Automatic annotation (TrEMBL):
InterPro entries: AB_hydrolase_fold, LYPA1-2/EST-like, PLipase/COase/thioEstase. Residues 22-208 form the Phospholipase/carboxylesterase/thioesterase domain. Belongs to the AB hydrolase superfamily. AB hydrolase 2 family. This is Esterase. Keywords: Hydrolase. Pfam families: Abhydrolase_2. The keyword Ribonucleoprotein does not apply. It comes from Paenibacillus beijingensis. One of its GO terms (molecular function) is hydrolase activity.
Length: 219
């Protein structure tokens, strides 16, 4: 079956199809692309398979996964379709590459963070964890989607204190929502706007590495 999205993949040095590797699927923000996301997790490329998924809808010099009616208000049909296509992508990539299905992570920024959190809620423990940078969960996802338990899903949420796109109170509300669903949610704010600081990046890298290693120890 043809992959629903174009993507950029980085395999660990000495990649061996007989082994199984943890994977990070990255989802970019509105108007960006998959290569911009790679810089966030590049230091992990020798330990993880890294797959940057490009949105299939052109927007300026970049791409998006769905369009909006207004800021924070996705076009429902396009959003629903993107979620289904991303679920299919994760399944197909997991079958194609030497991916450890018990250590699958999704990392997203802005629009990508919105989708990462939605995937956690719809896939449940089929994902090991997510990183959501400056995003939120649409109300219709919470109230109308068929949600799975995220009790065993590790969640890292961060937000800029001066984010003018999605104010920090949205980050606080989102973190509270996930913390009510599990005790594996970490929430951190940074002295920044709608962006990822170096301190935020380092915290994400450390969290991904530690969580992945902990998963191995628990097997």
């Amino acid at each position: 079956m043809k992959q629903p999205y174009k993507y950029d993949i980085h395999l660990p040095e000495g990649y061996d199809e007989a082994k199984r590797y943890p994977v990070i699927f990255t989802l970019h923000g509105k108007g960006s692309n998959e290569r911009n996301m790679f810089g966030l997790v590049e230091p992990l490329q020798d330990r993880f398979i890294i797959i940057g998924i490009r949105g299939d809808l052109p927007l300026g010099a970049g791409y998006q996964y769905y369009e909006l009616k207004s800021l924070g208000n996705p076009i429902r049909e396009m959003f629903d379709e993107a979620v289904l296509k991303l679920q299919a992508f994760i399944d197909e990539a997991s079958a194609k590459y030497a991916i450890d299905a018990s250590r699958r992570y999704v990392l997203g920024f802005s629009q990508g963070a919105i989708l990462a959190m939605t995937l956690a809620l719809t896939l449940g423990d089929r994902l090991k964890g997510i990183v959501a940078l400056n995003g939120y969960v649409p109300a219709f996802v919470k109230s109308e989607y068929a949600l799975r338990s995220v009790e065993e899903v590790s969640v890292f949420i961060s937000h800029g204190e001066f984010d003018r796109v999605f104010p920090v109170n949205i980050g606080n509300e989102t973190a509270a929502y996930f913390k009510a669903l599990n005790d594996r949610t970490i929430f951190r704010t940074y002295h920044s706007g709608h962006e990822v600081t170096e301190a935020n990046r380092q915290d994400v890298l450390n969290w991904l590495l530690e969580d992945s290693l902990r998963a191995v120890e628990m097997e």
